[in-house]
UniProtKB/TrEMBL annotation:
Keyword tRNA-binding attributed: no
Keywords: Actin-binding, ATP-binding, Coiled coil, Cytoplasm, Motor protein, Muscle protein, Myosin, Nucleotide-binding, Thick filament
Subcellular location: Cytoplasm, Myofibril
Residue ranges of every copy of the Myosin motor domain listed in the record: 1-40
Record protein name field: Myosin heavy chain
Organism in which the protein naturally occurs: Cyprinus carpio (Common carp)
Stretches with biased composition (Basic and acidic residues): 1161-1174, 1185-1196
Region (Disordered): 1145-1196
Length: 1196
C-alpha cells in the first residue's frame, strides 16, 4: 500500500482523482485514460531514444567504412595516375611486349617442381605402405584381444542374467504372496460392508450376477479358443506320434488310466451331489489332492525355471546364429562388392593409362608444333627485319628524291624562267613521289598488321599450349592419386577377406555347438509334449465340472432375475402411490391455507364495516343535535329577533359554515359507505366461493382418506410379499455365494491350467520353428552320417527321459486328486460360515426396524424447528430479493459498460484495419523500392562491365596509336567527323536540358504530392534510374570526348612535329605552304579549345546530374523515415488496441462475476424454497399421521 502511495505521489496527477482502499486503488473517471497516455508518451520517448542510439551507432560504423573507402579511393587513384604517367615510356612498351613471352620459362620451372613433387610423393607412398603393414599387424593383435574380451563379457552377462532371473523369481513369488494378502483383506472388507449395508449388498449381488454371466461368456469363448488350439496341437501331436511309433503303447496305457481316473472323479462328484454321508471319504481324498497340488506346484516351478533357462539359451543361440549369418552374408556381400570394385578400378586404371599415353603423345605433338611455331616466328621476325631494312632503303630513296626535288625547285627558282616541259616533268615526278610514298605507307601498314596478327597468334598458341601442359600435369597428378587410393583399397579388401575367412571358421564352430544344443532342446521339447498331454486330460475333466457348475448357476440366475423383476415392479407401484398421496396432501394443504387466508380477510372486512357503521351513527347523532339547536335558535330568533339581529347573523354564518362542513363530511361518509358496501358484496361473493372450495376440499380430503386406507392395506400386502421374496432371495444368495466361491476356485485352477497349456504350446511352436530352422541349416551345410547316428542316440535317450517323466506325471495326478478333496472340505466349511453370517444379518434387520421407529419420533420433534426455520427462510428470501434487485441494477450497468466497451473495441478495430492497410501499402512501396534499387544495382553492374570493356578498348586504342599516324588529310577528315559529333552532342545536350526542365517540373509535382509516400518513392526511383542512364550516356560522351581530345592532342603533336619539319623544308620551299599550315594549325587549336570547353560543359552537366541523384536519394531516405514513422504510429495504435482489449476483458470478467453472484443467489433462493416446500410437506404428512392416529384412538 505504501509503495502504491509513493508511486502515485511521484506522478504529476491530481491527487483528488483517486482513493486508496485496503487492497485496491479506486480511480475516478478519466484518470485511467490520462495514466495510459502518460505511459504511452514514456514508452514512445524510450523507443525514440533507443532508435536514436541505434541509428547513431549504425551511422558511426558507416562513417568508419566511408573513411576506409575514401582512403582506398585515394590509393587507387594514385596508382592509376602513376600507371598513366609510366604507360607511354618506351621501356614499359618493351616490357609489355616481352611479358607474354615469359611463360615458357615458368612452365619449365613448374615441370621441374612437378618432378620434385612426384619424387616426394613416391617416398611418402613407400613410407605409408610400411606404416600400413605395421598397422595391419597391430590390428590382428587387437582383434584377438577383442575376441577374448567379448568371450569374457558373454560369460559375465550369462552370470548376470542368471542372477537377474533368480531375483525375478523371488519378486514374482513376493508379488503372488502380496496378491493373496490383498485378496484376504478385500474379502474381510467385503464381509464388513455386507454386515453394514444390506441394500448395497443386494446391488452388489446383482452386479456380481451380471459379471458372472460375462465371465461365463468369456470362459465359453476361451474354451472355444482352447478347443481350436487343441485341434491344432492334436494335429501336431499326431505328426510327432508318427515319428515316435515306439511310444504309442505307453501313451495308450496312460490314456486308459486317465479315463479310469476321470470316471472315478465323476462318480465322486455325483456322490457329492446326491449323498452327504460320504463327506469323510471326500475329506481324505481332498488331503491327498492337496498334497498332489503342492507337488505339482513344486514340479511346475521347476519346469518354469527349466523353461526359462531353455528360453534364455535358445534366445542367445538364435541371436548368435542370426548375427553369425548376417555377418557371413555381409562379408560375402562385401567380398563381391570388393571384387567388383577391384575389377572396375582395374578397368579404370587401364583407361587412365591409355588416356595418359594419348595425352603424352598429344604433348609430344604439341611440343613439335611449338617448335615449328617458334621456327615460323623466327622466320617471320627475319622477314620483318628484311621489311624494315627495305623500308629504311625506301625512306633513304625518298629522302634522296626529296633532296633532288628541292635541288630542282631551287634550280627552277634560280633559273626563274623554266619551260613547260620542265614543269610537266616536275609534276610527273611529284605524282610518282606521292604514289611511291603511298605505296610505302600501305606496305608498312600491312607489314605491321601482319606482324601484330602473327604476334597475337603466337601468344595465343603459346598460352593454349601452356594450358594444355598444365591440364596434362593435373590429370597425371589425379591419376597418380587414384592409383595410390586404389592400391590402398586393394590392401583393405585383402585384409577384409582375411577377416571374413577367420569369421567363417568361427561361425562353423558356432554351428557345431548349436547343433549339439539343438539335440538337447529336442529332448526337452519331447518332455514338454508329454506334460501337454497330461494338461489336456486335466482340462477335459475341468470342462465337465465347469459345465455342471454353469448349469446350476444359470438356474440360480433365472430365479434371481425373476425375484428382481418382481421387486422392481413392487417398488415402482409403491413409488407411484407415494407420488399420488403427496400430490393430494399438497393440494389439501394449499386449499386449507387459502380458506384460512379468506377467513382472515373476511374478519378484517367485517371489522372495518362495523367501524364505518359506528361512524355513520355518530354523524346522524350530530345531525339531530344540530337540527335541535337550529329549532332553538329559530325560537330565540322569533323572540329576540330585533335585539340580536347582528348576533344571529354571525351565528347564522357560523351555522352555515358548520352545515357545509357537516354536509361535506356526510358526503364523504356516504361515499365510504358505498365503497364499503361494494367491498362487502365482493367479500361475500368471495366467501361464498371459498365456502364452495372448502366443501370441495373436504370432499377431496374424505376421498383421499379413503384412498389412503386402501393404499395402507395394499402396502401391507406388498410388505408381506416383499418379506417372502426377501427370504427367497436370501436363500438364493446363499446358494449363489457357495456356487460363486466354488466357481471362483475352479476358474482359478482352470486359468492356471490354460496359462500352462498356452506356455507349453508356445514353447512347442518355438521349438518346432527352431527345429525346422536348424534342420534347414543342417541340410544346407551338409550333415554327415556320424552326426545323424549321434542324433539317433539322443532321440533314444530322450525317449527314456519321456517315459520317466510320464511316471512322474502319474504321481502328480494322484497328488492333484487329493488336493481336490481338500478343496471340497473347505467348500463345506465356507457354506456353514455363510449360514451363520446370514442369521446374524437377520438380527441386524430387526435392529434397523427399531431404529427407524425411533427416527420417526425424532422427526415429529424436528417439525416445529422446521416451521421456525421456514419463517427465517422467508425473511432471508425477502432480503435476497432486495439484493437480487440491486444485482440486476448492477448487471444492467455492467451490460451498458460492456456494450460501450464493445463499441469502442469496434472503433479501434476499424482504426487498426485502416492502419494495417496503410502499413500494407507502405510495405508494398518498400518492396517496390527494393526492386527498383536492385534494378539500379544491376544497371550499375552493367555499367561497370561496360567501363571495363571501355578500358580494354582504351588499351587497344593505345596499342593501335602507332597505326593511326596518318597524314594531315586524314586528320582533317577526323576533325570534320568530330565537328559533326560535337554538333550532335550539342543537340543531345539541348535535349538533356529540356529533359532536365521536364524532370524539374516532375520533381515540383512530386513535392506537391508528397502526402502519398509510395508514389513519391516510385517517381524518385524512376527519376534516379533515368538520371543514372543519362549520367551513363554523359559519362560515355565525356569519355569519348576525352578519347577524342587525346587523339587530337596526339595529332596536334604529330602535326607540330611535321610543322617543324615543314618549316625546315619551308625555309627552302615557299611561304605560301607555311601560311596554309599555320592557318590549319590555328584552326585545329581553336577546335581543340572548343572541344575542351564542350568537355568542361559535359563535366558540369555530369556534376549537375550527380547533385540531382543525391537530392533524389535524400528524398528516398526521407520517404523511408516517413515509412518508419507510420510503422511507429501503427505500433502505438496496436498498443492502444491491446489496452482496449484488456479493458473489455476486465469488463467481461466483472459481468461474469456479477452473473455468477446472481446465479448463486438465485440457486440459494431456489434451495430455500425447496427446503420450505419439503418442510411444509413433512408438516402436512405429520399432521395427516396425527389425524389418523387421533381417528384410530377415537374409533378404539
Amino acid at each position: 500500500k505504501k509503495a502504491t502511495e509513493k508511486l502515485l505521489g511521484s506522478i504529476d496527477v491530481d491527487h483528488n482523482q483517486y482513493k486508496f482502499g485496503h487492497t485496491k486503488v479506486f480511480f475516478k473517471a478519466g484518470l485511467l485514460g490520462t495514466l495510459e497516455e502518460m505511459r504511452d508518451e514514456k514508452l514512445s520517448h524510450l523507443v525514440t531514444m533507443t532508435q536514436a542510439l541505434a541509428r547513431g551507432y549504425v551511422m558511426r560504423k558507416e562513417f568508419v567504412k566511408m573513411m576506409e573507402r575514401r582512403e582506398a579511393i585515394y590509393s587507387i587513384q594514385y596508382n592509376i595516375r602513376s600507371f598513366m604517367n609510366v604507360k607511354h615510356w618506351p621501356w614499359m612498351k618493351v616490357y609489355f611486349k616481352i611479358k607474354p613471352l615469359l611463360k615458357t620459362a615458368e612452365s619449365e620451372k613448374e615441370m621441374a617442381s612437378m618432378k620434385e613433387n612426384f619424387e616426394k610423393m613416391k617416398e611418402d607412398l613407400t613410407k605409408a605402405l610400411a606404416k600400413k603393414k605395421e598397422l595391419e599387424e597391430k590390428m590382428v593383435s587387437l582383434v584377438q584381444e577383442k575376441n577374448d574380451l567379448l568371450l569374457q563379457v558373454t560369460s559375465e552377462s550369462e552370470n548376470l542374467s542368471d542372477a537377474e532371473e533368480r531375483c525375478e523369481g523371488l519378486i514374482k513369488s513376493k508379488i503372488q504372496l502380496e496378491g493373496k494378502l490383498k485378496e484376504t483383506t478385500e474379502r474381510l472388507e467385503d464381509e464388513e460392508e455386507i454386515n453394514a449395508e444390506l441394500t448395497a449388498k443386494k446391488r452388489k449381488l446383482e452386479d456380481e450376477c451380471s459379471e458372472l454371466k460375462k465371465d461365463i461368456d468369456d470362459l465359453e469363448l476361451t474354451l472355444a479358443k482352447v478347443e481350436k488350439e487343441k485341434h491344432a496341437t492334436e494335429n501336431k501331436v499326431k505328426n510327432l506320434t508318427e515319428e515316435m511309433a515306439s511310444q504309442d503303447e505307453s501313451i495308450a496305457k496312460l490314456t486308459k488310466e486317465k479315463k479310469a481316473l476321470q470316471e472315478a472323479h465323476q462318480q465322486t462328484l455325483d456322490d457329492l451331489q446326491a449323498e452327504e454321508d460320504k463327506v469323510n471319504t471326500l475329506t481324505k481324498a481332498k488331503t491327498k489332492l492337496e498334497q498332489q497340488v503342492d507337488d505339482l506346484e513344486g514340479s511346475l516351478e521347476q519346469e518354469k525355471k527349466l523353461r526359462m533357462d531353455l528360453e534364455r539359451v535358445k534366445r542367445k543361440l538364435e541371436g548368435d546364429l542370426k548375427l553369425a549369418q548376417e555377418s557371413i552374408m555381409d562379408l560375402e556381400n562385401e567380398k563381391q562388392q570388393s571384387d567388383e570394385k577391384i575389377k572396375k578400378k582395374d578397368f579404370e586404371i587401364s583407361q587412365f593409362l591409355s588416356k595418359i599415353e594419348d595425352e603424352q603423345s598429344l604433348g609430344a605433338q604439341l611440343q613439335k608444333k611449338i617448335k615449328e611455331l617458334q621456327a615460323r616466328i623466327e622466320e617471320l621476325e627475319e622477314e620483318i627485319e628484311a621489311e624494315r631494312s627495305a623500308r629504311a632503303k625506301v625512306e633513304k630513296q625518298r629522302a634522296d628524291l626529296s633532296r633532288e626535288l628541292e635541288e630542282i625547285s631551287e634550280r627552277l627558282e634560280e633559273a626563274g624562267g623554266a619551260t613547260a616541259a620542265q614543269i610537266e616533268m616536275n609534276k610527273k615526278r611529284e605524282a610518282e613521289f606521292q604514289k611511291m610514298r603511298r605505296d610505302l605507307e600501305e606496305s608498312t601498314l600491312q607489314h605491321e598488321a601482319t606482324a601484330a596478327a602473327l604476334r597475337k597468334k603466337q601468344a595465343d598458341s603459346v598460352a593454349e599450349l601452356g594450358e594444355q601442359i598444365d591440364n596434362l600435369q593435373r590429370i597425371k597428378q589425379k591419376l597418380e592419386k587414384e592409383k595410390s587410393e586404389y592400391k590402398m583399397e586393394i590392401d583393405d579388401l585383402s585384409s577384409n577377406m582375411e577377416a571374413v575367412a577367420k569369421a567363417k571358421g568361427n561361425l562353423e564352430k558356432m554351428c557345431r555347438t548349436l547343433e549339439d544344443q539343438l539335440s538337447e532342446i529336442k529332448a526337452k521339447s519331447d518332455e514338454n509334449s508329454r506334460q501337454l498331454n497330461d494338461m489336456n486330460a486335466q482340462r477335459a475333466r475341468l470342462q465337465t465340472e465347469n459345465g455342471e457348475f454353469s448349469r446350476q448357476l444359470e438356474e440360480k440366475e433365472a430365479l434371481v432375475s425373476q425375484l428382481t423383476r418382481g421387486k422392481q415392479a413392487f417398488t415402482q407401484q409403491i413409488e407411484d402411490l407415494k407420488r399420488h398421496v403427496e400430490e393430494e396432501v399438497k393440494a389439501k394443504n394449499a386449499l386449507a391455507h387459502a380458506v384460512q387466508s379468506a377467513r382472515h380477510d373476511c374478519d378484517l372486512l367485517r371489522e372495518q364495516y362495523e367501524e364505518e357503521q359506528e361512524a355513520k351513527a355518530e354523524l346522524q347523532r350530530g345531525m339531530s343535535k344540530a337540527n335541535s339547536e337550529v329549532a332553538q335558535w329559530r325560537a330565540k330568533y322569533e323572540t329576540d329577533a330585533i335585539q340580536r339581529t347582528e348576533e344571529l347573523e354571525e351565528s347564522k354564518k357560523k351555522l352555515a359554515q358548520r352545515l357545509q362542513d357537516a354536509e361535506e363530511s356526510i358526503e364523504a361518509v356516504n361515499s365510504k359507505c358505498a365503497s364499503l358496501e361494494k367491498t362487502k358484496q365482493r367479500l361475500q361473493s368471495e366467501v361464498e366461493d371459498l365456502m364452495i372450495d372448502g366443501e370441495r376440499a373436504n370432499a377431496l380430503a374424505a376421498n383421499l382418506d379413503k384412498k389412503q386406507r386402501n393404499f395402507d392395506k395394499v402396502l401391507a400386502d406388498w410388505k408381506q410379499k416383499y418379506e417372502e421374496s426377501q427370504a427367497e432371495l436370501e436363500a438364493a444368495q446363499k446358494e449363489a455365494r457357495s456356487l460363486s466361491t466354488e466357481l471362483f476356485k475352479m476358474k482359478n485352477s482352470y486359468e492356471e491350467a490354460l496359462d500352462h497349456l498356452e506356455t507349453l504350446k508356445r514353447e512347442n511352436k518355438n521349438l518346432q520353428q527352431e527345429i525346422s530352422d536348424l534342420s534347414e541349416q543342417l541340410g544346407e551345410t551338409g550333415k554327415s552320417i556320424h552326426e545323424i547316428e549321434k542324433a539317433k542316440k539322443t532321440v533314444e535317450s530322450e525317449k527314456a527321459e519321456i517315459q520317466t517323466a510320464l511316471e512322474e506325471a502319474e504321481g502328480t495326478l494322484e497328488h492333484e486328486e487329493s488336493k481336490i478333496l481338500r478343496v471340497q472340505l473347505e467348500l463345506n466349511q465356507v457354506k456353514s460360515e455363510i449360514d451363520r453370517k446370514l442369521a446374524e444379518k437377520d438380527e441386524e434387520m430387526e435392529q434397523i426396524k427399531r431404529n427407524s421407529q425411533r427416527v420417526l419420533d425424532s422427526m415429529q420433534s424436528t417439525l416445529d424447528s422446521e416451521v421456525r426455520s421456514r419463517n427465517d427462510a422467508l425473511r432471508v428470501k425477502k432480503k435476497m430479493e432486495g439484493d437480487l434487485n440491486e444485482m440486476e441494477v448492477q448487471l444492467s450497468h455492467a451490460n451498458r459498460q460492456a456494450a460501450e466497451a464493445q463499441k469502442q473495441l469496434r472503433n479501434v478495430q476499424g482504426q487498426l484495419k485502416d492502419a494495417q492497410l496503410h502499413l500494407d501499402e507502405a510495405v508494398r512501396g518498400q518492396e517496390d523500392m527494393k526492386e527498383q534499387v536492385a534494378m539500379v544495382e544491376r544497371r550499375n553492374s552493367l555499367m561497370q562491365a561496360e567501363i571495363e570493356e571501355l578500358r580494354a578498348a582504351l588499351e587497344q586504342t593505345e596499342r593501335g596509336r602507332k597505326v593511326a599516324e596518318q597524314e594531315l588529310v586524314d586528320a582533317s577528315e577526323r576533325v570534320g567527323l568530330l565537328h559533326s559529333q560535337n554538333t550532335s552532342l550539342i543537340n543531345s545536350k539541348k535535349k538533356l536540358e529540356t529533359d532536365l526542365v521536364q524532370v524539374q517540373g516532375e520533381v515540383d509535382d512530386a513535392v506537391q504530392e508528397a502526402r502519398n509516400a509510395e508514389e513519391k518513392a516510385k517517381k524518385a526511383i524512376t527519376d534516379a534510374a533515368m538520371m543514372a542512364e543519362e549520367l551513363k550516356k554523359e559519362q560515355d560522351t565525356s569519355a569519348h570526348l576525352e578519347r577524342m581530345k587525346k587523339n587530337m592532342e596526339l595529332t596536334v603533336k604529330d602535326l607540330q612535329h611535321r610543322l617543324d619539319e615543314a618549316e625546315s623544308l619551308a625555309m627552302k620551299g615557299g611561304k605560301k605552304q607555311l601560311q596554309k599550315l599555320e592557318s590549319r594549325v590555328h584552326e585545329l587549336e581553336a577546335e581543340v579549345e572548343a572541344e575542351q570547353r564542350r568537355g568542361a560543359d559535359a563535366v558540369k552537366g555530369v556534376r549537375k546530374y550527380e547533385r540531382r541523384v543525391k537530392e533524389l536519394t535524400y528524398q528516398t531516405e526521407e520517404d523511408k523515415k516517413n515509412v518508419t514513422r507510420l510503422q511507429d504510429l501503427v505500433d502505438n495504435l496496436q498498443l492502444k488496441v491491446k489496452a482496449y482489449k484488456r479493458q473489455a476483458e476486465e469488463a467481461e470478467e466483472q459481468a461474469n462475476t456479477h452473473l455468477s453472484r446472481y446465479r448463486k443467489v438465485q440457486h440459494e433462493l431456489e434451495e430455500s424454497h425447496e427446503r420450505a416446500d419439503i418442510a411444509e410437506s413433512q408438516v402436512n404428512k405429520l399432521r395427516a399421521k396425527s389425524r389418523e392416529a387421533g381417528k384410530t384412538k377415537v374409533e378404539e
